[in-house]
Amino acid sequence: MYSVMILDNSEVELVMMQKALEKEYNVMPMNNSKQALARLTKANIMPDIMIIDVVLQGVSGFEVLTRLKTTEKMKDIRVIFISGDKDATTEVEAYRMGAEDFLRKPVNTQILKKHIETQVELLESKKQMGNYSGQLQQSMIAANQNTLKLEYFIIGVITDLITVKDTYAGMSSLAVSRYMGLILREMLMSGVNYGIEPGDFELIILSSQLHDMGKIGIPDSILQKTGKYTDEEFEMMKRHTILAANAIQRYSYLIPNSKFLNYTYQMARYHHERYDGGGYPDHLMGANIPLLARILSVADTYDALVSTRSYKQAKTHEQAYNIITQAAGLQFDPTVVSAFQRTHMEIYEMSRQLEMLEAQHRQQQMSAQAMTQMPPSGK
Fold first, then answer.
1. How far apart are CA 229 and CA 351, in angstroms?
2. For domain 137-371, which CATH number applies: 1.10.3210.10, 3.40.50.10730, 1.10.1040.10, 1.10.530.10?
C-alpha cells in the first residue's frame, strides 16, 4: 500500500483529503510544516507521495519543497503542490522547484484521487524500469517473483488448512497482519533504529499471517471448544507455538538464509511471550523477545479483544485500547504500546473495514451454501 503525507494548514481540507484517500493509501495528515519536516528527518521510511499546501504553519510550502528536493533521502518523494492562488505564478514556481503535480483549492476529492493514481502509476513505471535493466537483473527478478509466489502459496495453503479447523482463523490472520503493519510502519517512521531493514516491511507483514500455523496440529475438540479450557486443554493449545517453530526448523535447511522463514519462525514461536517474562513457550523477558513478536503480540491481542466469537462478545475499541495501555510493561513492550497509541485511530478504521469485509465473506458463504442445498428443478 502506497503512503501519502498530507501537509495542509486547513483542518477542514486535511480531514476531507484524508477521508478520500485512507481506504486505498496509508495516509499521514499533518498541519504543521516544521513537525512534518522533523518527522521526515528522523524517519527510516519516506512517504511515497506528499500533498503540500503553499500556506502552512511553520515554514511555507515552497520551503518544504526545497528541503525535500535537496535532501538525499527525501528527494524521491513525489510532490503534489496545492494552492488557492488564481494566477499561474504559484503553479509555474512549484513546477520550477521540482513539484511533480499541481492542484488548485478548494480541492475536488475525485480529481485529487485521479492525480494520486497518476503518481502511483508513475511510481510503478519507475519501479518496473529499474527492475528490468539488464538480462541478469531480469533473471534475478524472475527468481524473486517465483519465491514471492511460493511464499503466497504457502501462506494460502496453511491459512486454508487452519480455517478448516478454526473458522475464524483466516480472517483473524489477515486482520492481525494489517494491524501489525500499521504499528510497525509507525515505529520505522519514528526515526529510531530498531535493526529492521525498511525494505523487508512487506515480507514481514506477509510472514506475520502464519503466526498461528501451529494450530493445524491442535485437536479439533480444543480449537472448536466454545467454553473455558481445562488446564490440560490450555497446555495443549499452548503447544501451537512449538509445533510451528519445530516444523519450520525441521525443513529450513531446504531454503537456507531465508528471511521469510526467519521472520515466520520468530513470530510463530514467540508471539505469546510476555514482556514481564510470564508468557510461553520459553518465558522470555523484555528485549530477549524478538521485536517482531512483541509487535505482533499487541496486534494479536487487539484483534482478539475486538472480535466477536461464538463464545464471547467483542469489546469496544476504547475498551481494547485501555486494556492494552494498562498492560504496557507487563504483557507488552511499552515502546510498542506507545506506537499503538499513536496509530490507534488508524487501527480502529482498519478494524471497521475488515469487519465489513468479513460480513460480506460470510454472506457469500451462506449464499453459496444455500445454492448447493437447493433441490434440482424439475421439468
1. 27
2. 1.10.3210.10
Q: How many CA atoms lie within 13 A of 104 on its CB side?
A: 9
- Summarised one tens digit per residue, pLDDT across range 240-276 is 999 999 999 998 888 888 888 999 999 999 999 999 9
Cell of 371: 445454492
User: Cα separation of 181 and 201, whole Å?
Assistant: 8
Q: What H or E segment, with its residue span, contains residue 334? A: helix 334-373
* Cβ neighbourhood burial of 52 (10 Å; 0-12, 13-18, 19+): buried
CA pair distance 105, 53, nearest whole angstrom:
9
CA 92 to chain centroid, in Å, comes to 37
Q: pTM for the whole thing? A: 0.64
Between residues 58 and 330, which one has the greater pLDDT? 330
d(CA 102, CA 80): 5
